[in-house]
Amino acid sequence: MYKTKTYSQQFQWKKEVEYYRKITEVEKDNWEAYHYLGQALLKLEQWPECVTAYQNALKLNPNLPGIHQKIGDALQQQAKA
Predict the structure, then answer these.
(1) Where are the alpha helices (DSSP H) in 1-81?
(2) Can you say where the TPR repeats lie in this chain (predicted)?
(3) Please, which of 6, 59, 78, 79 could form a disulfide with 47 given CB 3.0 to 4.6 Å?
(4) How far apart are CA 69 and CA 30, in angstroms?
(5) Domains in the chain, start-ordered, CATH in brackets?
């Protein structure tokens, strides 16, 4: 996941999304990958996909701190768009 931190630092959100999508295709139980995918999609303002990624992370890790807030924030942004 070091590679994606570099993408984030360089604001290369599309590459980060591509990377995490590949991970989630192979590791369907990787809640961290879904969480980071949601964050990258949030930066790209891709609200529906962002919510889905966060919901997948939540299903895999129901005790994930702050995830409900992130889902709510993304849904609010989606409603404004």
Answers:
(1) 2-9, 13-26, 31-43, 47-60, 67-80
(2) 31-64
(3) 78
(4) 20
(5) 10-69 (1.25.40.10)
